[in-house]
Amino acid sequence: MIAVAAAAAFLATFNETFLNVALTPIMTDFGVDVSIVQWLATGYLLVAAVFVPVSNVLYHRFATRPLFVAAVAFLVVGSVVGALAPSFGVLLTGRLLQAIGTGLLTPIGMNITLAVAPREKLGLAMGIMAAMTTLGPSMAIVVSGALLSIAPWTTLMWVFGALSLIVLLAGAVLLRNVAELGRPVLDVLSFLLVAVGLVGLLYGISTAFSGPALVAAIAAVVGVLALAAFVMRQNRIEHPLLNLKPFRSTPFVLGVSMTMLGLLFVFAMNVVIPIFLQSVKGQDPLGASLILAPGILMTVVLGPIAGRLFDRHGGRVMIPAGFAIMAAFALLVGVAAGHESVLLFGALYVPAVLATSLGIGPSQTFALSSLDRESSPHGVTVVSTSFQIAGCLGTSLAIGVYNAMTTLGLENGSDLLGASTLGFRGAAVLVALTSVIGVVLAFAATKAARAARAAEAEGTVEFGRARTVVDLMKTDVYALSTEQNVLEALQMFTERGISGAPVLHTDGSLAGFLSDGDVMRYLSAEHPSSTNIYSFAIGESDDLEDALADLVSLPVMRLATREVVTVDANASIADAVAVLSDKHLKKVPVVRGENGPVIGIVSRSAVNRLAISSYLASRAGQVRPADDVTSTAEREPQLA
Known about the structure:
CATH topology of the largest domain: Growth Hormone, Chain: A
Shape: elongated
CATH architecture of the largest domain: Up-down Bundle
CATH class of the largest domain: Mainly Alpha
Number of strands: 6
CATH superfamily of the largest domain: MFS general substrate transporter like domains
Structural class: mainly alpha
Helix content: 55-70%
Mean pLDDT: 78
Low-confidence stretches: 460-466, 620-640
């Protein structure tokens, strides 16, 4: 399953730059200029960024396999539309359809990886994913350059469509459901706010160097205001489009920032190097692509290795070293741009792009490992959105600096060669500076990781003091609706590995609680010969199958307990312990106010884990709880 997820990540990022080398022939065929054709790249990134937050809602509402297939189908359909496009408008439409698939596919693939990868091998798994996301945009330039040397640009769309179809079929055959399904609601206003915010902000940045400054500034301001309104709304509504809980973690914020800086480096260099080599060094598209190939191919190998090293030693040394190497060799590549030897230029770029494997994958793993399983899908959404933002930033800033410095050189009397070299060196200095910022953030992340561990230990020792059930409860509640039947309830119990779930009215208020014990008692009374559910294991399942078929027409509220014991959100952990103990219950729904909505579940096992970890913390001064969905081991960032 990780292989399918990695292939999806590769496809999504591969397509972000696959058409870049073909922009010149597309302008010729459709008679458009560079200000129009650039929307094939910018528009793609914008739409992909807008649909990333939507993926989190869809991931928890629909089964993994059909959702994955639907997302990849957008890539296939968009490719066919683009390949057959009779006009630029139709081509752009196909490109934007692909962008919808990319916006959904990147976080889905990462969520699949987080769900199936063992925690002790998370660094390796995320290293593979990071290698694919780094390889995608880089390899796209090599492959497209080779194809354009023997075929028209429409071939690119057909080839990508075929690759997408292969991944679609692989997902349909190999994937199984790994998501924790519920009934999340898509808040339309939140979607519109994040769409306006991202489009405005990224449009302002992308046009800052090439369009009217006033328009760019207005767009950026509108984008920032819309994003601010989006954040305020997420904190107020019951079902936010994006849970902002991950932003409470300083290690997560630093990890995402470092990941973005690494991706900015990749996208910036991938756009300015081909332009410089073709316009200044006289290379054709294939030649320019081949100069990038060695470093790109070696990155695929180094990505998983860097992941293993992160699993064993953390990123305290690896991440800052990676950014330092990126900065140093970016400057050396800038110096080599003034020399005639293209081979020297390409050789110096190899360690620069290899170093991104030490920065991007480990930073991403560090960010997500600072979250628990409940927050991880929301963290994935943030990380996936950052991919698109980093791509747009890297492309726009690099091209903007390149063009501005080239123009400055020409105005100062330099020839085209000297001015273009100055422009490239300006872009190299830009990515070197961002890499230096990555070094600074890496050291800050080390301190934040240590502080997070210390705070966790201190917080755990404070068991029972000034803490409420909100600190302990599981917020991703598996719930049934009053419209469902008992067989559907049993199916959910089996898929989720749970023994019971609350039944909710349409307004979210509690209607009852159904457990597998309630169902077994019913079967025992109504179908005595089928009470042994293990008969399926020994081939004597006819009676039980008839009994279970009876459950299709049985509403859950016929068997559910209506007088449900609950705990208020403001209750202390001691109160929750008393309820669980006195009532001999395994779990209790947490509600907000009398007759309020269910906001979580507090379980006996969660209390037991907290008690044990408190004891261990008091003995050893640090927390080492067992691996579980709410354990410190999952929340603890591994940079230090």
